[in-house]
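Example 3.2
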Amino acid sequence: MSPKMQEFLDREREKNKKNRIKNKPIVFMTYVMVLTFIAMFSYLIYFMVKDSETVVANTSNKRQDSFVKFVKRGDIVSSDGEVLATTEVDEEGNEIRRYPYEGLFAHTVGYNSYGRAGLELSENFDLMRSHVNVMSKVSNDLGDDKNPGDTVVTTLNLKMQQAAAEGLGSAKGAVVALDASTGKILVMYSSPTFNPNDIDNVWASVHSEEGSSSTVLLNRATQGLYAPGSTFKVITAMEYIKEHPDYESYTHNCGGSDIFNSVSIRCSNNNAHGELDLKGSLARSCNTSFANIGVNEIDPDKLNGMANSLLYNGKLPYDGDYSKSQFLLTGDSNPSEIPQTVIGQGNTLVTPLHNALIMQAIANGGTMMRPMMVERLENADGAVLQTNKPKAYGKVLEPDLTQKIIPMLQEVCMSGTASEYMAGKPYSVAGKTGTAEYDNNGNCNSWFVGFTNVESPDIVVSVVVEDYTTNQISGTSVASRVMDAYYSE
């Protein structure tokens, strides 16, 4: 090869080398653009297949409102097939949402106006979809008729809900009943209630100057915060058991009243319970015994940990609106706060739903289930479209701890403070009563939380009755009616 040819080839190689260096950013950007396009296209496919319905189903998505042009809103029914909400069409073709049981399910089923509430809100997307067969859709489209929306089948039980309402009567309060092993919500009742068929007038009333203090729209079962009273002693007792393997040897001599950390603590009516072990202390709801445990026998930080593990101060595994329960006692708290806090007074607050979940975890060997209110979806012809399966939230208590506390809870119902209504039933009951003062005048709310069929638990019931001092309706009496309704089916 001649020198000139070699020189030419060398120049070309050098030129190509420089060009490659110059082109590197262009090649890099080309790869980036291609990969970005592939990623965007892949996500678009994924969204259309996987996430599109989730986005549309979001309760904040206004696109759902456009469905009303093509679909007549579906029904909401109870677990036993009773229609709780339906859409009727008058002679002029106007659609009217009707609630056959008026105020009985008002806070759970909700209403379909003013932003919606309850199941009408959370299940709006499914109620406004239609999965009737193709022939029916074609016929409706040709006739310019709307397609019937799908049906939401709830876990709610009509007979038990009626028993809860009858038990509370005109008293304010709330009732929650869960299936012990699955977390299905059988009852969720709040009093006072309202008639969703008359929601226009109800709405106007609560937003008027005269009705501005009304709490009729508040779902006390999930949003009402109450001092747990003696129902909290169950948690105090479990913490004592954890810290004291010899818990069965505990003794306390109750004289009816005593002073702990400069705080006067008295038992109900100043009753002197005498010599008590831990089971007797819980059965008779002895305030001085539990104040003694809180002040002298357990670590406040560990009690705080126990409360937090049971979801105090945290989020509940519940999709609806709820208020967060609170437990503030720690090792840094003023010692004078301990005696009242460990017996369920002080700054501790809990909702009836949360109290039910704690008892459900005890009944279920320490596993808390996610509460669910929708059993399945059906089309207008009754064909099942989707069935919701129970889901566990997780293990919140050690199984052996639940087995140690359950016999004590059963004693509460056999010979203790709940025995008037719970002893002698054809089924066994374990639970705890509570009388929680809400002012400085001795006025009280009444609690009961417990479960039935102790060996293989069936249902959990949580009840709070406001102003027991005046109306004398106890939480235990209401819970008894709900339990009896379950077994009468």
